[in-house]
Amino acid sequence: MEQFNLKDETSFSNLIDALCEYKHVIEAEELCFGKNNNKTKDLVFVLNTKIYNMILRGWFKMGWWSKCREFWEEMDKMCVYKDLHSYSIYMDIQCKSGKPWKAVKLYKEMKKKGIKLDVVAYNTVIRAIGISEGVDMAVSLYREMVELGCEPNVATYNTIVKLLCDNWRYKEAYKILGQMSMKGCEPNAITYNCIFGSLEQPKEILKLFDRMIESGVRPRMDTYVMLMRKFGRWGFLRPVFIVWKKMEEHGLSPDEFAYNALIDALVQKGMVDMARKYDEEMLARGLSAKPRVELGPKVVTRGPENG
C-alpha cells in the first residue's frame, strides 16, 4: 500500500474507484483482497459497501457477467450489506446480460427489505419488467413510481416510449411524447430515436423529424445515420438528401457512418458516379470508406517519397 502513498480511507476509495472506472478491476481486487483472495496483511482500511459496489461496477463495465455473479454471491458470503446502489448495479447487470426477469426478482427482494428505490433503480426495473412481462406492467410500475413520490426523468419516459414502439403502440408513444414537456421533462434526441427506429412510413418519419427540429431538439449524428440508412434501404433517395442537407445546415461534419449510409443509398439506386464523388470526398477527409465492387479499386495517391 505504501507505494500508492494512501493517507486515509478517502484516498484508498478514490484509487479503487479510478482502477475500476478504467477497467483495472483485477488490480483493484488484489489491493482489497490480496492475490487469489488471500487477505492482504497490508490493508488497513475498512472494506465497506461502497468499495464492494465499485468493484461490482468494474466487472459490469468489463461485461464479465460470470464474475459479476460470483462477486455478488461473495458479498453475501462476506455478510456485506447491499444498499440501493448495489441492487441498482446488479439489476442493470441482469438486464444487460439478457436476464431481465432476474432484475425483476431483485426489485421484489428490495421491496421486501424496505429499500426505497430512486429514479435510476426504477428506470432499470421498468425496462426489465417491460421486456420480461410486457409494456403494460412497465406502465403500471411507472404509475407506482409517481404515486410513491419518485419523480420520473427523461430516461424514464424514453424507456416507456421505446417499449411502446417495440410493441407497435405508436399512438401511445406519441401521447407520451406530447405529455413530456407539460410534465417538465423535455424530450431529447434519444426520445425521438426510439420512435424513428420503429416507424416504417417515410412521410411520417420526415414529419416527426421536422417536429423534432422545430421543438428545439438537435438530432445527434446517430439520428442522421439511422434515418439515411432506413430511407436508403427502402430505396427512397430524396429523403436521404433531405436528412443530409439538414445535417450540413446544423453544422455537423459527416462521419464515416454518415458517408457510408449516403454512398450505399446512391449505389443501390445505380448512381455510381455521384457515389464515387462522395467516396473520394470521404477519403480526402481521412475517413474509412467501405470497399465497394461497384466503385472499383481505391486510388492511392503516392507522395514524392514513394516514387
Task: Describe the secondary structure blueprint for this structure.
Layout: H1 9-21, H2 25-33, H3 49-62, H4 65-77, H5 84-96, H6 100-113, H7 119-133, H8 135-147, H9 154-166, H10 170-182, H11 189-196, H12 202-214, H13 221-234, H14 237-249, H15 256-268, H16 272-284
Helix pairs in contact: 1-2, 1-3, 3-4, 3-5, 5-6, 5-7, 6-7, 7-8, 7-9, 8-9, 9-10, 9-11, 13-14, 13-15, 14-15, 15-16
What's the CATH architecture of the largest domain?
Answer: Alpha Horseshoe
Catalogue the unreliable spans.
Answer: 301-307
Please identify the structural class as seen in this structure.
mainly alpha
Order of helices and strands, N to C? HHHHHHHHHHHHHHHH
The percent of residues in helical segments reads 55-70%
Instruction: Work out the number of β strands.
Output: 0
Protein name: Pentatricopeptide repeat-containing protein
InterPro entries: PPR_rpt (IPR002885), TPR-like_helical_dom_sf (IPR011990)
Family: Belongs to the PPR family. P subfamily.
Keywords: Repeat
What's the gist of this structure?
The chain has 307 residues and is mostly helical. It is built from 16 helices and no strands.
Q: What does this 3D model show about the protein?
A:
The chain is an all-alpha fold and 307 residues long. The chain folds into three domains: 81 residues; 100 residues, Serine Threonine Protein Phosphatase 5, Tetratricopeptide repeat; 95 residues. Helix content is 66%, strand content 0%. The protein is built from 16 helices and no strands. Helix 1 runs antiparallel to helix 2. It is globular and about 70 Å long. The N and C termini lie far apart (57 Å). The C terminus is likely disordered. Belongs to the PPR family. P subfamily.
